[in-house]
Design brief:
Oligomer: single chain
Radius of gyration: 33 Å
Shape: extended
Number of domains: 2
Largest sheet: 7 strands, mixed
Distance between the termini: 68 Å
Structural class: alpha+beta
CATH topology of the largest domain: Chloramphenicol Acetyltransferase
Length: 423
């Protein structure tokens, strides 16, 4: 009796996925709920667990193939223990000893055929390709490898220079070596040194959506800077008490989410989107927080952020960051965002122009904090400054609204008491 392994329901609007990696191979023993295969969608990467214990008897779809929801991936033979699976296979025959003469030949590191130029030189020199160690990708024999193999070893005792019949000259430059006597190294085989890696479904979708955003929206970016002294002081004064009370560290993202909420309420166009010939103003605030992972950029959404405390926002952002790095985010975690915040400062970015997360009309870019000279009360002083960038869709957000939004964010961050008073 066998249990089928099928593609599970992957989420709303997702109808297909790409088989990324099989964690088991045919004939391996598996346990129930053990990860069997990784599926890549245009939003997330999910692992399909084993529906039952037994032996992976059949793999129907290989890595890199595209499958639809409900498609058959393979089957598990039930009631077969791992030991039984192993015993069904004949024991491998002991490897025969290799002749010692063969061991003296250079080992061929791959079955890659020699490059065309190398094959020509091998034929001209009468050398067997098996006697040449290749330096190309996967051990491919290149043209220069053949040259090195047939080059004669230098004589240990070079002959004395021939006596010249003419007397030595003084004050004259040495004669240049004729060009035909110079050994010009062969150009490297660039194709052999390249590596091609298939784009993941997530990376393909990111590329397509970013290009669609550029083609559709009239994207502009406006900039401002913010003095982070007040936020840094508040964080340093209360971070230990905050963590002790709420069980989560006090970071910067919570302050920025709170500041953006105040600005979005003042400038509702930044929280809206265009749908055909209509503008949809959203009277709710789902803030997307961009997170960079090895698989690409994902944007989980802090839903109803205006109803959450600073501690709740920090806890949600921390949880999303951990799950994003572990590949544990679900489809529902990334749907419905109305505005996005991205923090390039964690990678050292000083200034950038973030691209819209369509169909949203605005995205705020944070950057690194660094001390810069500023004028305060007629004095030049050093302050921890950060550049802010707001990219927006000029079809719906006017320039004055974009500037007003950034000024509002700046005011809230430079005077965090406004959060408490909602000013």
């Amino acid at each position: 009796m066998a249990t089928e392994i099928r593609v599970p329901t992957l989420g709303e609007s997702i109808t297909e996925a790409t088989v990324g990696k099989w964690f088991k191979k045919s004939g391996d023993a598996v346990k129930a709920d053990e990860p069997l295969v990784e599926l890549e969608t245009d939003k997330v990467t999910v692992e399909v667990p084993a529906p039952a214990s037994g032996v992976l008897d059949d793999i129907k779809v290989s890595e890199g193939q595209t499958v639809s929801v409900g498609a058959l991936l393979g089957a598990i033979r039930n009631g077969a223990a791992a030991s039984e699976a192993k015993s069904d296979r004949p024991a491998p025959a002991p490897a025969a000893a290799k002749p010692t003469a063969q061991a003296e030949k250079p080992a061929k590191s791959s079955e890659m055929p020699p490059s065309p130029a190398a094959r020509k030189k091998l034929a001209e020199a009468g050398i067997d390709a098996a006697d040449v160690v290749g330096s190309g990708k996967r051990g491919q024999v290149l043209k220069e490898d053949v040259g090195a193999a047939k080059a004669p070893e230098p004589d240990a005792s070079p002959a004395p220079p021939a006596a010249s019949s003419s007397p030595p000259t003084r004050g004259l430059a040495p004669m240049p070596v004729p060009v035909q006597h110079l050994r010009v190294p062969a150009p490297p085989n660039d194709a052999a040194r390249e590596e091609r890696v298939r784009m993941t479904k997530l990376r393909q979708t990111i590329a397509q959506r970013l290009k669609d955003a550029q083609n559709t929206a009239a994207i502009l970016t406006t900039f401002n800077d913010v003095d982070m002294s007040a936020v840094i002081k508040l964080r340093n004064d209360y971070k230990e008490l905050f963590e002790k009370r709420h069980g989560v560290k006090l970071g910067f993202m919570g302050f920025f989410v709170k500041a953006c909420l105040q600005a979005l309420k003042d400038v509702p166009a930044v929280n809206a989107e265009i749908d055909g010939d209509e503008i949809v103003y959203k009277n709710y605030y789902h803030i997307g927080v961009a997170v960079g992972t090895e698989r690409g950029l994902v944007v989980p959404v802090v839903r109803e952020a205006d109803r959450m405390s600073l501690a709740e926002i920090e806890a949600q952002v921390t949880d999303y960051g951990k799950r994003a790095r572990d590949g544990k985010l679900g489809i529902e975690d990334m749907l419905g965002g109305t505005f996005t915040i991205t923090n390039g400062g964690v990678y050292g970015s000083l200034l950038s122009t973030p691209i819209l997360n369509a169909p949203q009309s605005g995205i705020l870019g944070m950057h690194r904090i660094e001390e810069r000279p500023v004028v305060r009360n007629g004095q030049v002083v050093a302050r921890p400054m950060m550049y802010l960038a707001l990219s927006y869709d000029h079809r719906i957000v006017d320039g004055k609204d974009a500037v007003a939004f950034l000024v509002r964010v700046k005011e809230c961050l430079e005077d965090p008491q406004r959060f408490l008073l909602e000013l």
